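Hey,
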Amino acid sequence: MLLVSYIRTWPLGSDEAEMALGRRWTAEEIRGDLLDTLNVAFARLSGSRLYMPELPAFANLFKELAALKDRYPRLRINLSVGGWGADGFSDMAFSQESRAEFVSDVLAWLTRHNLDGIDIDWEYPVGPEGGQVIKSRPEDAENYIHLLADLREGLARLSAEQGRTFSLTTAVPAAAWFPRTIDLVRVQEQVDYLKLMSYDLYGSWSPTTGHTANLYPSPGDPGGWSVDQAVRSYLEAGVQPEKLLLGVPFYARAWRGVPAQNHGLFQPFASGAYEHGLSYTELKKGFLTDANFARYWDEEAQAAWLYDGDLFISYEDPQALAAKAAYVREKGLAGVMIWEYCHDLSAECLKTLHAALKDA
């Protein structure tokens, strides 16, 4: 069972004021012994070439990654390209020439920085009905697969040159439309793993409060979606379980002005809170030990929440993570993918997953 985590390159924190301090992680803070792979997020696209928007502010990023490699030689470090709102994929993937330029640049980055692979986080090829925030076209469905195939071919060449393996992964949404739109059987032929972003099922964009990453459906849930339903939609589309990594969040979603009915669950709200997500570190420091907040557990959904009569917080705690790990083992999935490491630099959540997946 694999343990894979994204790690951010922008400043740490759960709000603008904290992030304005500009603090970033160091290699000494990362428990590489508890991970198989670390995905560095994010590189972006400028035409068919890569750039890192957090450079030069995080000037020592690649020195820290090199230090991690020295400390944990078995840890694979991949570069993730894209992320929410990252544009340019549809144009880059549209022609064989632009894809070839992109692949060439990717190989140069991997070689220059001694990285182990590339992760494509295109959100999303074609896009859901009703549109999305980035440019898309119907041809994306086919060009996405061409892009992955070109990358696989390029990585094979690089592997032959350097005598080591390079990995290719892709992030995919926990949404019903994607398996209906994209030929996932052909996708899995090109990639090592599909990383299911099985979180953000509820947020400030939703009409009510709700579980952000409930494992199973919850009675009374107006949204009616769950992690299990998302997984099954991928398996039914032909994805082999050993190709699928289950995403878990190390952050919470929160809402203010929530009425007390049902302890705040599936209720209207006045506003969202913590736009960037509330990290598990902040939860421990300011909420889990606050006597004003009660913890509730949805047995059917296998999900926890906090509520103080006004603020509703949906979060992943050790009990929920243990349930996810048991699910991964039961379904024969490849392992777990985490978003993201810096939300819990104490590694408390990571230790829970490691014990459940590696020591069980």
